[in-house]
Amino acid sequence: MKEKYNYVNLKHYKLNLKWILPIFIIIAIFSFLGFKYIKTLTYKNIYTTISELGDQTITQLDLAIGEQKKFVETMVDSINKGYFTTESEIFDNFADHLENYHFTRLAILDKDGNGITSDGHTVTDYPITKEFFNFDNVYLSENRKSTISDDQINIYAEAFYLNGEEKVLFATVYTEDYKEILLRRLYNGLGGTYLINKEGIVLIDSFDIIKENNINLYDFIVDKYKITDDKKLTKMNQMKENIKNKSAGTFDIMLNKDLYFVNYKNIGINDWYVVNVVPANTMANELNQFTAISLGVCIFINCIIISICVYIDISNQIKNRKLYKAAYVDPITLLGNENYFKEHSKIFFKSLKENKYIITIDINKFKIMNNMYGYDFCNKLLSIFGEKIKKGLPKNNITCRMYSDVFAIILEYDKDIKQVLEKIYNDVSTINVDNTLVNLNISIGVYKIKKLDTDINKMLDKSYIARKQIKGTYDNYYYMFDKSLENSLLEEENIEASMEEALKNKEFKIIYQPKFSTKNEQIVGAESLVRWYKNDDTVIMPSNFIPLFEKNKFILKLDLYIFEQVCKDLASWKQKFNTDIRVSINVSKTHFTDENFIDEYVKITNKYNVDRSNLELEITESATIDEEIDVLKIVNKIKSYGFYISLDDFGTGYSSLAMLQELPIDVIKIDKIFVDKANLNSNKNMINYIVLIAKHLGTEMVVEGVETKEQADFIKALNCDMIQGYYYSKPIEKEEIEKYFIKNGINIS
Ligand code: C2E
Ligand code: CA
Ligand code: CA
What we know:
Structural class: alpha+beta
CATH topology of the domain at 506-744: TIM Barrel
Strand content: 15-25%
Largest sheet: 8 strands, mixed, barrel
CATH superfamily of the domain at 506-744: EAL domain
Bound molecules: ligand C2E, calcium ion
């Protein structure tokens, strides 16, 4: 079912980027840093690997060259020791070992470069430089072209004396042979191992990429890859510089979209360097795999975390929304509820202009409808009712159901508010619920908000108070809170401020209104009525404070106080006059919310030792129709203690015959509106019937408010039991009623 909380502003689900975004950014930063860190680690690894590669190459070169040098040294040593006298002797002696040490041939030359080789060649004018002619060390030359074959060779040379003549021993090796030593790997492109001298001239290229002689490795690379990028040139120059300074190094460089790792190291011989160039793609499997995996993992984790965040956020929102709905939406009308009204009114009041109103609407006699049509039907009715009101209103409003059948509106309206009220009245005058047309009467209370108002509860009260002015009367359906109500509200505030003090100061006093027998017009009972003697001179009537005390519950205290005073009086009358007169006492329905209230009454009767059959508790008819209260239980309890019970104001509430039959009522008091002069004639039949019913039920009858002889005569003719009214006696002071006792003798019951 599609939800239609269109009356209440429910927030839509919205991703809360406020905290998801930072989390996302933090994760992204961490992923990036982690990725970078692992990349650096991997690079370091690769750097170490190729550096180790360089070391291996160097070790092997070192081994090979070292051995060859050593052999040359050995030869020169033995020559110097004078073992040989001729060149051929020397050649013969070492001939067998030449192959073992990978020497191509030996040659012995004099200072001018003339001499012979071990394989029978004659050498003339070989350019012998200072380095060659060295008596102390074996010199290893860089590559040069053999004078005998076309091959590239390197020469080991050391000088010596033979028969007093200065000579130099040459032992030559094919440069080609060293390639075997330099590591050959399946490096494609530029990849491979190079032996270069300190100028960068390539001595050996393991892969024969560089065909020409005398090629500088830096220039070759820069040329081949057309490097113009400053950063790359700097890296290359750095290597050039480092090599000059005999230091080693490793770097990576992008050449033609391929990444290469380069490592260079001095090999400790002749300032030669091994340069390993490794294309990253040979390492790349590792690198790519790592990149792919770590990227994948980062994305995956990010997705999961973001999903979790989004999930948490959305479910929080759903939860909040549910809470919000439970807290603010009235489930029957889908309007806001009282909470919503009170909280959202604040926002409404922020921009307070002149013409804002609080309007409260109450459906008259809704309780009867509930009984007639049932709850489901009436809930539907409330829902349609709410919708109609809401739809008919000018735009700027808050409309809520406060409780039961009471709706409240805050409205901004610049024109005559009466137009709005009239529209509401007409809109809801007939409501169609499941094809049943229901005619409704409503009461509307209006309070025009003043700028100084702040408390929504007080404002609502004013609107309620205004509405209460019309409830029950049918000539008007709305009432605007006005000056006179304002004044009576102020008066109420005064009363509330002083009631506790008044009780302590015994300002509440009782007067008694006697009840008379219709048969002999003798006094047969009395009703206690409270008066408030404020400052001794002003008397405040109950109608001015009882409703307020019922609202603020002070009536609970006051009724007990009055009851105690009555008990005192009864006890004193019993003593003074030995009278058993029955006194009735009004008990507010406010007590009924706590069924144990009667225990307090019982305690008081015990305290004054008063016979409870001399006490009659008057409960109003309206108290018996409150659905929340189990009246039968309470009334039975009262009865069980021996009190009399009367149903007061009969005819003004809506008690049913069934109810009358069920409740153990002793006395029915017919309300004075039945005997009012204006109503008497039309009500005669009705009163007649009520008397018949009462007789049938076995209850006594009292007619209240009898003011004239005509009324009294009519009542007497009806066979009714008692009359109470100004015609016989107004409510009188205690001393006055005592006169009756004296006049009528001691036992009047
Ligand atoms: P009620 O119980 O219906 O009391 C009868 C009211 O009608 C009394 O008004 C009485 O003075 C008045 N009355 C009696 N005879 C006539 C008559 O012939 N003509 C006219 N016009 N009025 C007559 P009162 O004393 O102002 O009390 C008003 C209401 O206040 C009472 O109505 C009762 O509901 C309530 N009340 C009075 N005292 C107490 C009390 O101690 N406790 C409680 N809870 N309520 C009380
Ligand atoms: Ca009464
Ligand atoms: Ca009454």
